[in-house]
Design brief:
The chain is mainly alpha-helical. The chain contains 14 helices and no strands. It is globular and about 60 Å long. The chain starts with a helix and ends with a helix.
């Protein structure tokens, strides 16, 4: 996992620090907030069944989902408001837990790309076990689909299972076919087991992406170890929560500068110095 996103946020914080010193944090300019970016385009897919998770690329290969399949399946169900709220609570709880685990163990998980590139199997094995250990609170909750299914009405739970079963079978056949094309043996059943096992990784990967792109992550990452007082921690947490509620995922540059300037202003001089040194070391 690259460190470039925290570095980019650190640059914003440096800009914000200047604003804080100039006591301009309470009067940010009202720059026009940009429209949210369109989702990154995935591989082109053909006219597959819109009521199915199974879709094929124009070349004929199966398009495996970027989202955890259980989360993607929810988009095809017409949930009533109460059910939708209960499901959203589970998704939020899991996402926040994953995000916090990533924040608390960022120094470890950020080594992933380098260790993978090293090709050292022993080092990779030790790293894998370390990551599993720190992510255990999320793993203990079990698969996402097992938390969602009991919240759905009976008919939608059945449709939920149908969507997932069809997807997993398609993935299993696709992976088995790919293995055969390489001269390897892989049964459809084993391929499905491996694919289902991989879904927790997709959930964590998505949570990591969301985390490192969020201002909440930036604030917690950059202030970690600064020995915040209880009052500082509570105030900074309120600032971040207010920011999230106010911007609703559409924060502009001035919004970010205001947040980091306010956070910076609540640090004492020693903490500010440590923070600036941390940013320069990114």
């Amino acid at each position: 996992m690259a460190r470039k996103l925290p570095l980019a946020i650190g640059i914003v914080l440096l800009q914000a620090a200047s604003l804080a010193r100039a006591q301009n944090a309470d009067n940010p300019d009202d720059a026009t907030r940009p429209q949210p970016q369109a989702a990154l385009a995935g591989p082109a897919v053909d006219g597959s069944d819109p009521e199915s998770l199974v879709a094929y690329e124009y070349g004929g290969g199966l398009h495996e989902l970027d989202l955890p399949p259980a989360e993607a399946a929810l988009e095809l169900l017409q949930l009533d408001p109460d059910t939708s709220d209960r499901v959203a609570q589970v998704l939020t709880e899991r996402a926040m837990l994953a995000e916090q685990l990533i924040i608390d163990n960022f120094d470890l998980v950020s080594q992933g790309d380098a260790i993978k590139a090293s090709g050292n199997k022993i080092e990779q094995g030790v790293f894998f076990l370390s990551v599993i250990r720190v992510l255990n609170p999320l793993l203990e909750r079990g698969p996402l689909e097992d938390e969602i299914r009991p919240l759905l009405p009976a008919d939608q739970a059945a449709e939920f299972d149908r969507l997932l079963d069809a997807y997993w079978k398609a993935v299993g056949r696709s992976r088995a076919d790919q293995a055969r094309s390489r001269g390897e043996k892989l049964s459809v059943r084993k391929a499905v087991r491996e694919a289902r096992r991989d879904q927790i990784g997709k959930e964590i990967e998505l949570a990591a992406k969301r985390a490192i792109e969020s201002e909440r992550f930036a604030v917690e990452f950059l202030t970690k170890g600064l020995e915040l007082t209880e009052a500082q921690h509570s105030r900074i947490e309120r600032l971040v929560n207010d920011f999230v509620a106010r911007t609703m995922g559409e924060a502009g540059q001035s919004d970010k500068e205001r947040l980091f300037a306010e956070v910076f202003a609540y640090l004492n001089e020693h903490q500010q110095q440590l923070l600036m040194e941390r940013i320069k070391g990114l």
